[in-house]
Amino acid sequence: MIPAGFQNVEGQLLIWMVAMLRPGAAFLAAPMFGANAVPVQLRLVLALAVGIPSAAMVNMTLPAAGIISLPGFFMIVSEVMAGLAMGFVIQIAFGSALVAGEAISNAMGLGFASMADPASGQSSPAIGQFLSMLTMFLFLAADGHLALIATIAESYRALPPGEAWLSFSAVGGIVKFGSLAFSAGLSIALPVGFALVLVQLIMAMIARSAPTLNLFAVGMPAALLAGILLMGVSLPIMADMLSNALRMALDQAQIIGGGRV
């Protein structure tokens, strides 16, 4: 005979597994948590630590037909989609830093200078990598990671497991929010990028008035020096704009998790 305390072990383990899906998907899509440098085992432990108490709040139960059934499949898909949506909007805010870095790098003449991004494993411009690291520090300093975890946990009240389907308006809101990566990125790069365009125009007029001047020998160092000085001056403003982008992303994640879209 199976001891009385172990009769429902399989069902409890299945509940825990399903409870891990939403936070696990959110951590996979979100920055920092989904970085290649973060071990998969650590993400599983975090998903388990967040999912079990959250599922206990709503007294989650599995479909009567079991997890290996059509209702169980729909339940798994809805949990994964809800988690991915909340994590992806945070990733969009981090994408604005890469867009700004790309624009500034091209204006400074550093478009060829790239380095490996530890978060994605892909190469990105050096300025974009710097702004991405700044965004990560701002995200941690503002307890954005804790706010994301709290949003995931609270989403179980508004979107119980099995009923976490995103509406068409929610998907449309995510698509519209995706424009933030472009508009905010250009806004962040605008002070430095516009000034560098003026520097390039001045160098063009100098080269026009002095044809014997080697524009490549003078223009590129001048643009590089001007870009470094301008970034040092405008860095507080850029940090404020990055903080606003992160705040908007967290608000959007709360809207999705609260089922208010």
The helical percent reads: over 70%
Reported for the largest beta sheet, the result is: 2 strands, antiparallel
Query: How would you classify the quaternary structure?
Result: single chain
Discrete helix count:
9
Q: Determine the structural class based on helices, strands and strand pairing.
A: mainly alpha
Task: State the separation between the terminal residues, measured CA to CA.
Answer: 51 Å
Query: What order do the SSEs take from the amino end to the carboxyl end, as H and E?
Result: HHHHEEHHHHH
Low-confidence stretches: none
Number of spatially distinct domains: 1
Percent of residues in β-strands: under 5%
Task: Please list the strands of the largest sheet in the order they lie side by side.
Answer: 1-2
What is the tally of beta strands?
Answer: 2
Task: Estimate the global geometry from the Cα principal axes.
Answer: elongated
Query: Over all CA atoms, what is the radius of gyration?
Result: 24 Å
Any key phrases for this structure?
single chain, about 260 residues, mainly alpha, two-stranded antiparallel ribbon, 9 helices, 2 strands, about 75% helix, elongated
Question: What would your notes on this structure say?
Answer:
Strands 1-2 form a two-stranded antiparallel ribbon. 73% of the residues lie in helices and 2% in strands. It has 9 helices and 2 strands, in the order ααααββααααα. The longest helix has 43 residues, at 215-257. The model has no long low-confidence stretch (mean pLDDT 80). It has helices at 9-19, 21-29, 40-57, 70-108, 126-141, 144-158, 168-177, 180-209, 215-257; strands at residues 114-116, 123-125.
